[in-house]
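User: Teach me something about this protein's shape.
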Amino acid sequence: MASKTVEAVLFPGIDVRVERVSDSSDVLVVEALSTARPGRCPDCRKQAKRAHSTYQRSLDERPLGFRRVIVRLRVRRYFCDRKRCSRTTFVEQVPGLSTRYRRSSTGLADWLRSIAIELGGRPAARLCRRLRLTAGRTRLLRLLTAPAVPDRAPRVLGVDEFAFRKGCTYGTVLVDVEAGRVVDVLPDRTSETFAAWLTEHPGAEIICRDRATAYTKAVKEAAPHALEVADRWHLLQNLSAAVEKTCHQHRDCLRKHTKEETVTEVPEPPPMLLPPAELPRTQIIERTRHRYEDIHRLLRIRILTRP
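Assistant: First, the predicted structure itself:
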């Protein structure tokens, strides 16, 4: 019954059989055996018929509460009987649990990948330490894969530069403004690279960019029919710079106008109405006062009559 409970919690829908569970204060070791059908050769995709041997591999699984979970999975090695295939033997992979060349389960790898996507390197590593997950920033960043670039550019394309290394190396990030996601990243910020990308990925109707002349040149060359607009951040930056420059140029006039202004009299605030000094005479208040007076009268009588 305990084995079935562990299988239902750790391996739902996965072809494994739990043989032993070793429980300690901070580590839970689960020994399991693969019960899946014979696997297929990763090269020729022919299903195996003969088993070569078995061996045990260790996988880090998602933690259970505050305890680390290690799965010692016994898998089979098979012969590949196709003569034209260059691979003689191969090891089976349990779908939903193991993958080639990885020491973590598929579920744990998905957790780490999601954390890395949301937080990046060092912040993700700090969160993993709090969650009792063994993963450094280098390992987390290796889990990230570049998304597939669509064949056509989005209808509203956002273009801006960013720094690989501030002051030294810059690149260009392309964003689908309507969907709010990154489309592609270019290795530099030159007009030739951006123009080549626009030529290979047509379809941009509106291009939202900053004031860089390189991007303007690329748009006029590769997408002349696209409408160019400035993004909100640069509009606000330009507006604040123009207001600051105007105020600086007319500071003498503003100072003179300030001195000539007459001080207007501030009307006195209306007097604050204070609550009445005594509470209104009500039946409850009168009864409370009488009880208070009776208590103190009885208290004085007790003190006087005390021997």
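Now, about its shape. The chain has nine helices and ten strands. Residues 283-305 form the longest helix (23 residues). If you'd like, I can walk through any region in more detail.
User: That's plenty for now, thanks!
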